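User: Reviewer 2 asked us to show a designed sequence for the structure in our supplementary figure. I'm pasting the structure tokens here. Could you produce the per-position amino acids so we can include them in the response letter?
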């Protein structure tokens, strides 16, 4: 059987008396797109950061493509895993192209190879190549988030961790980015773990939804199956939210039309 891209085995992380993660075990097969959802403070960001080594778990083991993450040099681990933050965190004094080229530069690529890679990455995230010369402040929020994705992909990681990547964007931009990113995930055969607050986004984009509550996984399954299998009332409420919203929208829009 193929090695899962990510294996979490009994991950624990405490802050003082409080457990941010209280024994999380999760296998993510290569190529899967997983949405990680849960209330604020449920441990989503902590979980992502234990995977790429930004946070050392207090207990348990992280395995990335079969290797114990604690035994992999941190820079190597981070290079093999792309990370996209909600606040993209582009360097304002560097051009868009220079921001995307940060990792290639660290890796010592020459100018021609780096420039070619920047062009290729801009094509991938559907941005015109001209934006490479601009400052981040000259782009829209959606364009900046695309740059964040391009930068995360620069060293050709096969795993992407995304922490509410589209959370700060307006709904239309968010929708377009989500759809484009899903296409990219498929095209590059990535494995993606994406934190989102938006259950509709999770249902529409992900192969699998994992729900965290107080540092524990309380539901885990394909979008279409999750509602039928979960007993947890909070999880049911969360999963039913997009459907309730769609029904209310239809009622109101019909009401306006008639
Ligand atoms: N550096 C930290 N120090 C103390 N507590 C923290 C720290 N980081 C996170 N926490 C706590 O751990 C819990 C999980 O946080 P987090 O993973 O950020 O949740 P989420 O991303 O789901 O909102 C929260 O109760 C949060 O307050
Ligand atoms: Mg968070």
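Assistant: Here is a per-position design you can include in the supplement:
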């Amino acid at each position: 059987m193929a090695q899962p891209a990510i294996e979490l085995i009994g991950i624990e992380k405490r802050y003082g008396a409080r457990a941010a993660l209280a024994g999380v075990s999760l296998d993510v097969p290569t190529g899967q797109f997983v949405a990680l959802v849960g209330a604020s403070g449920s441990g989503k960001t902590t979980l992502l950061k234990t995977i790429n080594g930004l946070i050392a778990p207090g207990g348990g083991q992280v395995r990335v493509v079969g290797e114990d993450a604690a035994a992999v040099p941190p820079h190597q681990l981070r290079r093999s895993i792309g990370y996209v933050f909600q606040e993209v965190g582009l360097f304002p004094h560097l051009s868009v192209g220079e921001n995307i080229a940060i990792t290639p530069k660290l890796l010592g690529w020459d100018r021609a190879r780096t420039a070619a890679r920047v062009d290729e990455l801009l094509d991938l995230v559907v941005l015109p190549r001209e934006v490479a010369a601009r400052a981040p402040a000259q782009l829209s929020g959606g364009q900046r988030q695309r740059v964040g994705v391009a930068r995360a992909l620069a060293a050709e990681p096969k795993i992407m961790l995304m922490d509410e990547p589209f959370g700060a964007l307006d709904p239309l931009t968010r929708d377009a980015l989500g759809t484009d990113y899903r296409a990219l995930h498929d095209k590059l055969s990535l494995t993606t773990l994406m934190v989102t607050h938006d259950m509709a986004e999770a249902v529409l984009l992900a192969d699998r939804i994992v729900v965290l509550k107080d540092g524990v996984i309380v539901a885990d399954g394909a979008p279409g199956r999750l509602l039928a299998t979960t007993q947890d009332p909070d999880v049911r409420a969360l999963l039913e939210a997009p459907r309730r919203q769609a029904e209310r929208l239809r009622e109101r829009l019909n009401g306006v039309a008639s």
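For the response letter, you might also mention the following. Residues 233-257 form the longest helix (25 residues). The chain has one domain: 6-219.
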